[in-house]
Design brief:
about 240 residues; alpha+beta; 8-stranded antiparallel beta sheet; about 35% helix
Length: about 240
């Protein structure tokens, strides 16, 4: 009987010790996860904005939820996405926004111990000052499997490379003319009409030395959109195509 009680006490003590260990690890993991999201000032962005008359902000807490189809946190111990290195200004007569969208995924190393993996996306957007139909143009991975290989042989290059989601099929059909499709195949970026915004999303961090090229790519995309699809009364005075 005493032996049984001793076993019970040992098991109880072990259970309490493990519970304390799990709580400490969980708390430490949560603190580490929160630290992952803390951005620091980027001197290159500060210098660029000072030379152009643009505005630089280290972080904007409202931006991660501004646009649809952006990565979000899936569990309580993973930090919420962050919008860092935010640049606002005017380019080609349009108000623009640029930032790095940071999100995290959590992978288990051992029970109650996790490693966080960071994903970075560069978001560049023009405010068109007018609502347009939702349109999401997303690059898709190279297909695999016999049915996918059959689709690869029957579909065109653009259909193999991009997935299209829209609330108005006539709008997407008009946007995706041959010249636009060729541009998309060259850039490999993601584009979306989202409310009043035209948004481009590129894999990787937002770097100051790449912003001019990204703005040029988005301007090219906008210039390829047939003028009758855009609001003709925009304040920037761009003529219709």
């Amino acid at each position: 009987m005493l032996a049984d009680l001793e076993v019970v006490h040992v098991l109880a003590a072990a259970l309490v010790a493990y519970s304390l260990y799990a709580a400490v690890v969980s708390t430490t993991t949560g603190l580490k996860a929160r630290r992952l999201g803390r951005p620091s000032v980027d001197a290159a962005h500060e210098a660029l904005c000072a030379s152009r008359g643009w505005t630089y902000t280290v972080e904007d807490e409202d931006l991660p939820a501004r646009f649809q189809a952006m990565p979000t946190s899936m569990d309580a111990l993973t930090p919420e996405p962050r919008a860092v290195h935010v640049v606002t200004g005017t380019h080609a007569g349009l108000s623009f926004l640029s930032y790095e969208h940071r999100s995290w995924s959590r992978h288990s190393i051992e029970p109650h111990v996790y490693r966080h993996q960071t994903a970075r996306l560069h978001v560049v957007a023009f405010d068109l000052d007018h609502l347009h139909p939702w349109l999401h143009l997303r690059p898709v991975p190279r297909p695999a499997g016999p049915l996918s290989r059959l689709r690869s042989r029957t579909a065109g290059p653009f259909e193999r490379a991009y997935a299209v989601e829209t609330t108005r099929r006539s709008f997407s059909t008009a946007v995706l003319h041959d010249e636009m499709r060729a541009h998309l195949l060259r850039t490999g970026a993601r584009y979306q009409f989202d409310g009043t915004w035209l948004v481009m999303v590129v894999d990787g961090p937002a770097r100051a030395d790449q912003l001019d090229a990204r703005l040029a790519d988005l301007t090219t995309f906008l210039d390829l959109v047939p003028g009758h699809l855009l609001w003709r009364g925009r304040p920037n005075g761009r003529p219709s195509r």
